Isoprenylcysteine carboxyl methyltransferase (ICMT) family protein
Amino acid sequence: MPLIEEFERSGISLFRWRSYLPFVFLPLIVVAAIRYPAIETNPSLHFAWGMFSLWFSLLGLFVRCHTVGHAAQGTSGRNTEEQIAETLNTSGFYSVLRHPLYLGNFLIAFGIVLHSCSPWLVALFIALFALYYERIMFAEEAFLRRKFGPDFVRWAAKTPAVLPRLRRWRRAELPMNWPKVIRAESTAFAVIAIAFPSLEFLMHRMQEGTIAVEMAWYYILATGVALYFVARIMKRNFRRWARYEAILLKAAK
């Protein structure tokens, strides 16, 4: 099989499992957290590092929410079986890079890994993420090129793959679709809100024999869990309204 076809084939296979890549690092993050340098030596610096790491994950969540919320229907979804794109998105974050959702994924996971304060784990994560998503992006772009032809080629020629070219920013053409964002990204928000406090609890438990951490982590955990359940309720209402709307449209015809 030609190498170009092998790349695309492996990218399609990896695409189906892309949501599970962070779980591969979960045991390594736990090990790194247990081996974390003594917290009591500089608790203020430790807390500042946690907030710094959290900032990366929240930035990644923002990138994902903005991208998903302004993307056309039938694109930028969480589908796992096959590539889907009814429209070629070229505005918003798609005006400064070709794969904003994967950048968002990277930043979310990078923040969690960074919080472990393990240089070897951070380096391993960056290397594996690049290798894993390179194939996925290759397969995705092959699909888009076949479907959109010259339009994709022109857009790709002036838009970098993963490193944003911010001076090319163009405002999103579609308005923000908050129901779509809530449906798609509530789980990512919950993961962030649970992962950081959980790592803090683990670090303190292993080193100090207690789970007493800064109150900010309790607030983050409580807020994250509460908002997640609110989002779950809203998602059910969205589905109910969608079914009701479909019935009305069918009756109108």
In short: The helical segments are 3-16, 21-34, 43-70, 100-115, 119-148, 150-158, 178-208, 215-252. Residues 3-252 form one domain. The chain has a mean pLDDT of 80.
